[in-house]
Amino acid sequence: MLSISRAFFKLLESERLKSYSDDPSKSKRLSISFNINTEKEVVAEYCTSVRGLVPKLLEAISESLGLKGII
């Protein structure tokens, strides 16, 4: 099962999307519990926020370790 999963995710996105369907009558389909098009914006905003948080966390950690000014 792991080898099949790895092979699937090595495919180009366009090939993987051919398997995506919300139609329960299809025998082979990839279905997820959220709408990709709707969630894309939310995930992009989340990633941007996390990228902004990382330097602040690293600065706080380095300061707590007495490494102020290194990062």
Q: How do the strands and helices of this protein lay out in sequence?
A:
Layout: H1 2-10, H2 13-17, H3 36-64
General description of the model:
This protein is mainly α. Helix content is 61%, strand content 0%. It is elongated, with a radius of gyration of 20 Å. The chain has one domain (2-20, 28-64).
Give the gist of this structure.
The chain has helices at about 1-10, 15, 35-65.
Task: Give keywords.
71 residues, mainly alpha, 3 helices
Total individual domains: 1
**Based on DSSP secondary structure assignment, what is the total number of beta strands?**
0
Distance between the amino and carboxyl termini: 43 Å
Fraction in helix: 55-70%
Rounded average pLDDT: 82
Task: Point out poorly predicted stretches.
Answer: none
Global shape: elongated
**Helix count?**
3
Strand content: under 5%
Radius of gyration: 20 Å
The SSE order reads HHH
